[in-house]
Specification:
Shape: globular
Structural class: alpha+beta
Largest sheet: 7 strands, mixed
Distance between the termini: 82 Å
Low-confidence stretches: none
Strand content: 15-25%
Mean pLDDT: 97
Strand order of the largest sheet: 3-7-1-16-13-14-15
Helix content: 25-40%
Radius of gyration: 28 Å
């Protein structure tokens, strides 16, 4: 062999395929300020829209006077619900089967609800116009507390639902009730509790938070009256879904609607659904014949776009005295705000909360969820999690710690005693899921060994003794968290949005020179798809990742897909990419066999081409096959080398992880310090370890924010009191702890490349780790459960209530 001939390892390395720490190709433009975001879209004659918003949480709208606003220089129109009624757009459907006001129709139901849309020649004129619109309100009693929503004397919020005893998800039992969703065997679970040796019961609340992406929600709508076509540039995590929704709402033919998602500055679930700004900008463009841009500000984003969580979970576990769990019973009161605008698959009103059995082998379980209306902003999106999975993980992980405390057992040992065993996979849970694969004991033991868990417990015991002697005012907590997430929505047998199955797609076109372009139905908001998608293709077909261009976000060119959220990109679109690449490879094999004058079965794949078995010198590279595909294919074969795949997953995927948070808290001030945070994730096959680490760092930072201070809080009259970054905790590099990451690899048996997804996992596992650390710190003082968020003031308050502070 010639010394200059690359080795197999060198050829594989040149591809930069799966497993390679390939640098993010997106960052070339981002680090030079060359990203192309919605607010960068500037069209000739473009107008700007801004909203008049309600100062009240609940009020009747008596009148709207726009006379003075229309006198403001530059103001062209003021759109109200009455305007929208003329085109049947005053209300719009939500993804959850409810309807939502586009603009206030007769009353407002939450503070900062959209009341009127002012259209002007520039943003400043629009803002001046907003301040000149006079709205007369008649205040009504606000309903903020979800626990009072179904009281006999609770005010009627949704007057449009008067007389409707059933909603999209079954019977309603009160005028503020949305649905009741149950799963599991109630009688068997009650029987398990009836004979249980030990039980625990706790109200575990996951407070209302907000995704708060760096870039707020925005759009530019441009209607071409000659062609009858509407083009929308927007911050859309699911562009094709938006196109379909707009077609259904506006009654425009779908082929006349063009949706483009350019670069997006973070999404985290906040940019999945449709907002009034999109509808109003589209209507304004249709009416004026000019492009209309709508860009919300930060306060609008935090107070009016989709929130997350607000789940109040009464949780019970039955167990033996030795710590073996025998039953789980959970009731959830879910605060949905003024409208049910959750972005969940249609058949799942509480998302995938029935993953609440977690990583544990519960013989039986029962879950009931009641959704209710309140005078708060609508939403309930999957903020860096699969649908309601973060709430479920927090619920079971806090409950397991509470059970461990009652049994006087180490929380890690309790988990090891109850884990699903490797030989039980595929595992059918008591609440209906089929877990694909897992090795929980190995992951937990690796976490315990790497962190020297036993030594940390010894140190904690010594510090507690010193605290009792008055030698220190610091207490130490160890937060153990072990989560199993369910991602990859999803199989058409049980997952759809508005009746569209939640498949995903990929189209690959190889050019004659051996380069190619791949288009997907996903949409990156920072996940690095342009980097990792090319790596999958590189490994599958032997073309260097640098020679594959990845495109997303344009509904005119990308195949129909359901978008990016809930860690579904790699489990669903990643599989579609692999399957499309394998179609390319199958045709390439036929071309190679023809050119090498052998039967297809006589060829074997070798890194970047096909080799004749037993004759290694007879080889045809994939690059050469691409050229041949356009000039010398076998007789009867169509020229070209391209493929499309629509992948309908047979099952979800189930990534998991073992986390440990070591925290010290000063009881006199409530000030905490995260001394160490260890995060072990198992996401199956790892496509790009560097990007995985970045995703874990980002998710842990958001988990830290949520657990330790982030909250959308309302006062008794429905005013949002954390509506800006002055009050809404947004951690910077100063506050954010150091993250220590690790992994195990348990591939998914049904996924084409064995991948499971990881982007949401650190948020799912991180929040209970932080909360368990705080609760573990205070447990020796007699505390059982302290609700999140655990900011300095709440920590000090807990210390005082427990008698640790005079």
């Amino acid at each position: 062999m010639n010394d200059m001939t690359p080795t197999r390892d060198q050829r594989a390395a040149a591809l930069e395929g799966m497993g390679c720490k390939r640098k993010r190709v997106e960052d070339i433009r981002f680090t030079q300020g060359k990203g192309n975001y919605v607010d960068d879209v500037k069209l000739p004659g473009m107008l700007h829209g801004d909203f008049v918003r309600s100062p009240h949480a609940h009020a009747r709208v008596k009148s709207i006077n726009s006379e003075e606003a229309l006198k403001v220089p530059g103001v062209l129109a003021v759109i109200t619900a009455e305007t929208l009624k003329t085109v049947n757009l005053a209300w719009m459907p939500t993804l959850a089967g409810d309807v939502q006001m586009v603009l206030a129709d007769g009353k407002v139901l939450f503070q900062n609800q959209e009341v009127a849309f002012v259209v002007a020649t520039d943003r400043y004129a629009a803002d001046d116009g907003v301040n000149k619109v006079v709205v007369e309100y008649e205040p009504l009693p606000p309903l903020v507390d979800p626990f009072k929503s179904m009281a006999p004397d609770a005010p009627v919020l949704r007057e449009d639902l008067a007389g409707k005893t059933a909603g999209a998800h079954g019977p309603r039992k009160h005028h503020n009730h949305i649905f009741e969703w149950t799963v599991g065997d109630k009688d068997l679970t009650n029987a398990a509790f009836g004979k249980a040796e030990v039980t625990i019961k706790e109200m575990i609340s996951y407070h209302r938070v907000h995704p708060s992406p760096l870039e707020t929600c925005q759009c530019v709508c441009s209607f071409d009256k000659i062609k009858g076509e509407l083009t929308i540039w927007g911050t859309f995590q699911a562009p094709h879904v938006i196109r379909t929704v707009v077609s259904l709402i506006a009654k425009l033919p779908e082929q006349k609607i063009h949706v483009i998602s350019p670069d997006i500055g973070g999404g985290f679930g906040n940019k999945v659904g449709a907002y009034p700004g999109y509808i109003c900008a589209a209507v304004a463009s249709i009416v004026t014949g000019k492009p209309v841009k709508w860009v919300e500000d930060r306060i609008e984003n935090l107070t009016a776009t989709s929130f997350a969580r607000d789940y109040h979970m009464t949780t019970e576990i039955a167990a033996t005295k030795e710590g073996k769990v025998t039953g789980l019973r959970v009731h959830v009161l879910a605060d949905h705000g003024a409208f049910d605008a959750c972005a969940d698959p249609s058949k799942w009103p509480a998302g995938f909360f029935n993953i609440v059995t977690g990583s544990y082998d519960f013989p039986t379980a029962h879950l009931a969820v009641d959704g209710v209306y309140t005078n708060k902003a609508p939403g309930g999106v999957a903020y860096r999690c699969s649908f309601r999975v973060t709430e479920a993980a927090y619920c079971i992980e806090r409950a397991m710690d509470i059970l461990a405390q009652k049994l006087n057992m180490d929380p890690a040992e309790l988990r090891l005693k109850n884990f699903i065993k490797p030989e039980q996979f595929p595992y059918h849970s008591a609440l209906g899921w089929e877990y694909d694969s897992g090795d929980y004991h190995t992951a937990m033991r690796k976490m315990m060994e790497t962190t020297n868990y036993a030594a940390l417990r010894k140190e904690q015991a010594d510090k507690r003794a010193a605290f009792r002697r008055g030698e220190t005012r610091e207490i130490m907590g160890l937060g153990v968290s072990f989560f199993t997430e369910i991602v990859g929505a999803g199989p058409s047998k049980n997952c759809d949005i508005l009746g569209i199955a939640m498949f995903d797609s990929c189209e690959i076109r190889m050019h004659p020179t051996g380069a190619g372009i791949a288009r997907m139905g996903t949409k990156s908001q920072g996940q690095g798809h342009e980097t990792t998608w090319a790596q999958i293709i590189a490994t599958e077909i032997g073309i260097p990742a640098d020679n594959i261009q990845v495109e997303e976000g344009n509904t005119d060119t990308a195949p129909y897909g359901l978008g990016t959220y809930g860690s579904r990109s790699t489990p669903v679109a990643g599989a579609a990419i692999a399957m499309a690449a394998r179609k390319i490879k199958a045709k390439a094999q036929m071309i190679a066999a023809y050119k090498l004058e052998v039967h297809e079965d006589d060829l074997e794949w070798d890194i970047d081409g096909f080799r004749v078995k037993g004759l290694p010198e007879k080889f045809m590279s994939m690059k050469d096959i691409c050229w041949a595909a356009y000039n010398s294919v076998p007789p009867g074969m169509e020229p070209g080398l391209e493929a499309v795949s629509y992948y309908d997953p047979p099952n979800m995927t189930y990534p998991f992880g073992a986390y440990l948070c070591v925290m010290d808290i000063d009881v006199d001030t409530g000030v905490y310090k995260v001394r160490r945070f260890y995060a072990l994730d198992d996401c199956g096959t790892r496509i790009n370890p560097m990007i995985i680490e970045g995703q874990v760092h980002g998710g842990l930072t958001e988990a830290f924010a949520i657990a330790m201070g982030q909250e959308i809080r309302y006062d008794d009259t429905g005013n949002v009191v954390t509506g800006s970054f002055m009050d809404f905790f947004m951690p910077t590099a100063v506050e954010t702890p150091h993250w220590e990451t690790d992994f195990t690899v348990t591939p998914s048996p049904h996924h084409p490349i064995g991948a499971k997804g990881v982007g949401e996992s650190p948020n799912v596992g991180g929040v209970p780790a932080f909360s368990n650390a705080v609760n573990d710190a205070f447990s020796f003082l007699g505390s059982t459960h302290i609700q999140m968020p655990h900011d300095y003031w709440r920590n000090w308050k807990a210390a005082k209530q427990l008698g640790a502070v005079a």
